[in-house]
Amino acid sequence: MAQYFEVHPDNPQVRLLKQAVALLDKGGVLAVPTDSSYALVCHLDDKAAADSLRRIRGIDDKHHLTLLCRDLSELANYARVDNRQYRLLKSATPGPFTFILEASKEVPRRLSHPSRKTIGLRLPEHKTLQALLELHGAPFLATTLIAPGETEPMNDPQEIRDRFEHQVAAVVDAGACAQEPTTIVDLTDPEPQVLRQGRGELSRLGL
């Protein structure tokens, strides 16, 4: 049975967030709010938790997972970023964008794209999620919370609780959030390639 942490959207209770983070450290998968929809997250270095996350979401190991980071300095630990890419990242973060970048050696091989050695990274703009990341002290491995067989991301924490209470360790409820996926931008080519237009405005990237 999933634990349910109802927190204030602007001033989330640290005591409750610490309990949620403790579940991650024990191998749990959490449903958490982001600036685009709810997401499933787990510990970056826990393969069993990553496998569980994939099962819950109904995806295989070819599906690109994303690292949720606190800031650009943390992102640079997991991706190779040149000056041009850094300027683009700085202009659009934090925000509802996912960036495809060349993975650094810090990223476990099982997490990067097998043929391209790339990784999806993002810096979300959401107070509760930022607080969780700060308490955890490392990125989360994440995927958008879309129920198996469906196409729309989920944004209602009560519905998520009802549907996944026997599969996730906890739901962090900071209220309903947007119900639109991130904009995905591939920065590995000389010119940025928009792979999916979502909530992130391309004008922030000058595109």
Account of the protein in words:
45% of the residues are buried. The chain has a single domain, classed as Alpha-Beta Complex (DHBP synthase), CATH 3.90.870. It has helices at residues 14-25, 47-57, 72-75, 83-92, 127-136, 157-164; strands at residues 3-6, 30-33, 38-43, 66-68, 79-80, 97-103, 118-122, 140-144, 170-173, 183-186, 193-196. It is globular, with a radius of gyration of 16 Å. The chain has 207 residues and is of the alpha/beta class. The model has no long low-confidence stretch (mean pLDDT 92). It is 27% helix and 23% strand. A hairpin with a 6-residue loop joins strand 10 and strand 11. Strands 1, 2, 3, 4, 5, 6, 7, 8, 9, 10 and 11 form an 11-stranded mixed sheet that branches.
Features:
207 residues; alpha/beta; DHBP synthase; eleven-stranded mixed β-sheet; 11 strands; globular
Question: Quick check: average pLDDT?
Answer: 92
The CATH architecture can be named as Alpha-Beta Complex
Q: Kindly report the CATH topology.
A: DHBP synthase
- Our measurement of the CA-to-CA distance between the termini, rounded to an integer number of angstroms, reads 45 Å
Structural class designation: alpha/beta
Strand content range: 15-25%
Q: How large is the radius of gyration?
A: 16 Å
Shape descriptor reads globular
Number of helices: 6
Low-confidence stretches: none
Top CATH class: Alpha Beta
List the domain count as a whole number. 1
The residue fraction in helices comes out at 25-40%
Please report the total strand number as a whole number: 11
CATH superfamily: DHBP synthase
Question: Mind summarizing the main beta sheet?
Answer: 11 strands, mixed
The H/E string reads: EHEEHEHEHEEHEHEEE
